[in-house]
Amino acid sequence: MLHRLGIAIFVLLGLGLAQKPLEITLWHTAGPPGQEPFEAMVAEFNAAQSQYKITPRYQGDYREAGLKLLNALRAGGAPTLFHAEISFLGQMVKEGIAVPLDEYLNNLPNDFYPGFLETGRFQGKTYGLPIGLSVPIFFYNADQFRARNIPVPTDWNQVAEAAAKLSSRAAKGLIVSSDIWSFNALVMSRGGDLVNAQGRPDFTHPKVVESLEFLQKIVRAGHAQSRNIAEAQFSVADFLRTKAFMGLAPITIWPLIEDRAPIPFRLGVAAVPLEQGGKVPLAGGALVVLKGASPEQVKGAVAFWRFLMEPKNIARWVKATYYLPMRRSTQPLLEDFYKEDPRRRVAFSQVERASPWIRDPEVTVWYTFLEEALEKALKGNVPARQALEEAQRKAEAVERK
């Protein structure tokens, strides 16, 4: 009798252990307003099945999270799953800390927008599962445009013309940001690229030089205010206080502006001005499984991503964060969202012209050289070509190491 009871207890304990979900720690960067819906979807995934348990931990923005990950990889305590900025993905692959995922991605839906899944691919393999991709949009003071009868610019020459008309002693027509993201958006929209076909820095390409000369000309004419990345908060303040009237910014800043600050004018929203052959850069983040994960943990991570990619969950995410809808089948669920504010349809229509941005694995090293060049040209009056040639030499030196 006791023998049978012992066996029964052992079987029950074994069943209990077998049913315990496999834990997958996730370090993510989905801050407000996306943190609450993201973590709610994590909880719903955990409740919908018993195989896996995703444990989310917010780690700050992309740069903060990247530094924390590097420290954890050196000291121990790194997560299973990491929410990485897509320009950081190449470096993770080069360092051998990202797991290739293609064998786990059979039978994916065929309605993802072009280029979206490519943001998670590097050297022909998938290492990242994109969950939050954004494009820049062109913000402008619609009241000032209407008062001065200025048409909304559709190319950069029209931007320069509008900036001249809007500028005065008290205000500038355009805000120019000397950070890599903003400059890359300008270069790509004019048909250029900061890296060449081999994935190496190409700062002296004619399109890159022309783009910086374009900005330098507007700033020198007194029609634009130049701000670096450390002054980003002042850029927003200048715009809201009508000290500047136009600027590029990620679409994801839109809900933050409208929710947190009263806007004393009608906010204009338009697609990024494009030149011939221009593209709109896709930026954002992807889930990356880190080296050391078991095959079951990889399966769980992919299952979680598939859950996030269900149209109803994508729609929730889009409405909260203004990240782009990943799949075309989500669009019917967003019709009311677009009807509530037609400006959203204009901004989100850029999905068809979007293309992944920086893919060079050394970007996390050389981007500072480029930003220094932008600063020298826009605030220090160094000729654009000279500043870019210096940045190119420094970047090439890093690439050769």
From TrEMBL:
It holds the Pfam family SBP_bac_8. It comes from the Bacteria. CDD domains: PBP2_UgpB (cd14748). SUPFAM superfamilies: Periplasmic binding protein-like II. This is Extracellular solute-binding protein family 1. It comes from Allomeiothermus silvanus (strain ATCC 700542 / DSM 9946 / NBRC 106475 / NCIMB 13440 / VI-R2). The lineage of its organism: Bacteria, Thermotogati, Deinococcota, Deinococci, Thermales.
